[in-house]
What we know:
By secondary structure, the chain is an alpha/beta fold. It has 6 helices and 9 strands.
Amino acid sequence: METRPLYIDILTLFPEFFDNPLRTSIVGKSIEKELIVVRRHNIRDWSDGEYRQVDDMPYGGGPGMVLMLEPIVKCVESVLDLRKSEGIDPAMIILCPRGKRLNQEMFSVWSKLDPETESILILSGHYEGFDERIYALYPWTTVSLGDFVLSGGEIPALAIVDGVARLLEGTLGNPESLTDESFNSGSLDHPAYTRPPEFRGMRVPEVLMSGDHAKINSWRSLKRREMTSRFRPDLLEGQGEE
Length: 242
């Protein structure tokens, strides 16, 4: 019996934004191998009127436009009905600045969803954000890419697709490449080198060319801590580091 791929539904105003990224690199390979299926749903398709309006002026005044509630709700519920008819209960993600910052642990959790009964639904915003009532209607996991402003939620949505896809068994040619990656062990990865052994007076550390795997592992462990202490000391908080 074949395993069902993990479905990822992205609700967006700009489905064409995803055309090339979904055909490229690791994500493209994951889709080709049918490990994931990414469906894009244009929120405008659920709007009324000749111009398919999806935004309006905010009550109380102010700059910018706010995404209207009704088209989003119709779009969300259409996708939910589709997935539930297949026996799938989606994990619902909404992208906005108030959310918890996206991290590797989230990718790990989502990559372990059971495709037979679970999927991912991502709501991508735009303009000045959502009508506040959308947050009360569904059991969202609220996620932010970081403390900065982008034009919309399409880039964060792509980050989620990429971060989840690469963790699925069968996506990467060598699954061991995931083991020592940055953040998997609560630290940055060790420095990496390849040929040539010397370039403009800079040499590859001799230990890496020694063939002594015990010494190499020890060196890499030391360098992971040094790199983390230097560049991301916040990751060492609670690990007994100064």
